[in-house]
Structures are given as structure tokens and as C-alpha cells.
Design a protein that fits this description.
With 264 residues, the chain is of the alpha/beta class. The chain has two domains: 176 residues, HAD superfamily/HAD-like (Rossmann fold, 3-Layer(aba) Sandwich); 79 residues, 2-Layer Sandwich (Alpha-Beta Plaits), CATH 3.30.70. 41% of the residues lie in helices and 22% in strands. The strands form two sheets. A nine-stranded mixed β-sheet has the order 1-13-12-11-2-3-4-5-6, with helices on both faces. Strands 7-8-10-9 form a four-stranded antiparallel β-sheet, with helices on one face. A hairpin with a 4-residue loop joins strand 4 and strand 5. The structure holds magnesium ion.
């Protein structure tokens, strides 16, 4: 059962000797926009995150479905860990890692982008986000009928590649994600990061996210704290908060608690 986040859990986050905050971006840190390109990263959240990151024993990773370069630009902070394309590309310090299967799929994704752009000429209100290692088809602005038509057309066009295990499809909030067929997701990225930074060390891992693609990441922090933004009956997160505003509030409480703690 998912419960509303309790003060006991917030205390755990404040008092943990090492805190690793892993955060989804859109819908979690930034409000969802009617058009993804119009989304705005709240200034206040940026300043809180920057201050948490600068504390000793606190580390922040933003793990997003956006492409790596896009999420870094959107969040606009240095010194954080970023994972783009649901973890297929990770920038941690000076090191940049790309999933080998994603690299191999680069050409196919390019071809699919071309095909989808052709389809979208008939659906001017839909948008294609070309993320190199993945494609997001945004259809928030379409009527229900038109959206169904579009999804049918896209699924038909992509079907042969899905069958051949070269592409996988996942639905998010008014977005259809086409990804290389690799056994890798936000949960794998979480495990990869935990191993890289905290192997053999005591750490409290926390993951906060708002969408289907975050569910695997919730499972990957089973020893820590998983928080879903927005109430959902179908989540495996232990806790929920109401909105991205509540996430900002939570981050502010973590910041002041850990600041006080580090002052001793
Ligand atoms: Mg999200």
C-alpha cells in the first residue's frame, strides 16, 4: 500500500549519513507543460537542489526520459549526475557512459524518426522529440479520436521492428516512447549509479518520480525510500506526495535539516 510520505521518512532523509537523491524531472521537479518544449524548471527548486548538492554526504542525480544534453540544459545545474533517455546515457562527473545497445540502435532510431516525421504531417498538433537514442511522440494536444488514430498508425509502422526485438514501445503521460530494445531502464540506471558511487558504503537511496517509467526505479531503491508524485493505484512506490510543489517543499525540508545537521 502506498502511503502519504510521513515525517518519520523525512527525518530518515535528514539524518542519513549518506543521502543519494535520485529524481525524475518532468512532472516531479518541473510542472508538466501542455507542450514539452514549453516546460519551465522552477528557479527555486534549482537553488534548493544546488545547495543540497554542495552539502557533504549529499548527492543528487536527475534521471529523465529526455535526452542527456536536453536534460542538462533544462535543469541548468553543474555538478549533478544526469541520466538521459531513461538511463541509456549517463553523465557522472567527467565520465560519460552510453549503453552499447543504444549505440548500436542509433541508425535504426534515425530511420524511425524519418518515418514518424512523415506520419506527423497528418497530425500537426502532435510533436516528435528526437532524443537520438529514443523517440518521444507527444500527443497531449490531440483529441481522443485523433490520438487513437495516430497511435494506431505509429504502432503499425513500428510493429515489424517490435516483433524483431529491435524496438520497444512504452506509453507514458500522453506520450509514446520508442526505445532501442535493450534490457535497461531507469531501475538499471539507479543500480548502476549505486554501485558506482556507494559500493560497500552505507547510503540511503531515494527515488522520486511521477510516471510509469519510474516504477522500475522505485523497485531498485527497495532498501531506501520510493516516492510517487500524484496518487496512483498502480504504483509500487512506498509513499506518495501530491504534486511537484510538494516535492519542492520536501527538498526544502531536507536542505534545512541537513544544513543544520552539518553545522552540528
Ligand atoms: Mg516524469
Amino acid at each position: 500500500m502506498t502511503r502519504r510520505l510521513t515525517s518519520k521518512q523525512i527525518r530518515r532523509m535528514i539524518e542519513a549519513p549518506n543521502l543519494f537523491l535520485m529524481l525524475d524531472c518532468d512532472g516531479t521537479l518541473a510542472p508538466l507543460a501542455r507542450h514539452y518544449e514549453k516546460a519551465v524548471f522552477p528557479k527555486r527548486t534549482r537553488s534548493i537542489l544546488g545547495r543540497i548538492q554542495s552539502l557533504p554526504d549529499s548527492n543528487i542525480a536527475i534521471i529523465s526520459g529526455r535526452e542527456l544534453a536536453g536534460i542538462r540544459k533544462f535543469a541548468g545545474m553543474r555538478g549533478l549526475i544526469y541520466a538521459g533517455n531513461h538511463g541509456l546515457e549517463i553523465k557522472a562527473g567527467a565520465e560519460k557512459w552510453i549503453h552499447p545497445g543504444a549505440k548500436r540502435a542509433l541508425r535504426l532510431m534515425k530511420q524511425l524518426a524519418f518515418v514518424l516525421r512523415g506520419l506527423l504531417e497528418y497530425f500537426p498538433k502532435a510533436g516528435l522529440e528526437d532524443k537520438r537514442f529514443g523517440l518521444s511522440l507527444h500527443y497531449r494536444l490531440l483529441s481522443r479520436d485523433r490520438a487513437e488514430m495516430l497511435l494506431f498508425a505509429v504502432r503499425s509502422a513500428v510493429q515489424p521492428f517490435v516483433k524483431a526485438h529491435r524496438v520497444s514501445i512504452q506509453k507514458g503521460k500522453k506520450v509514446l516512447e520508442l526505445r532501442p530494445y535493450v534490457n535497461w531502464n531507469k531501475g538499471s540506471a539507479v543500480r548502476w549509479l549505486l554501485k558506482k558511487y556507494y559500493r560497500g558504503k552505507e547510503v540511503l537511496p531515494v527515488f522520486i518520480g511521477d510516471d510509469e517509467t519510474d516504477e522500475k526505479a522505485f523497485r531498485a531503491v527497495a532498501r531506501g525510500i520510493s516516492i510517487r508524485v500524484g496518487r496512483s493505484a498502480e504504483t509500487c512506490a512506498d509513499f506518495f506526495v501530491g504534486s511537484h510543489r510538494e516535492v519542492q517543499n520536501l527538498l526544502r525540508r531536507i536542505l534545512s535539516g541537513r544544513e543544520a545537521r552539518s553545522r552540528g
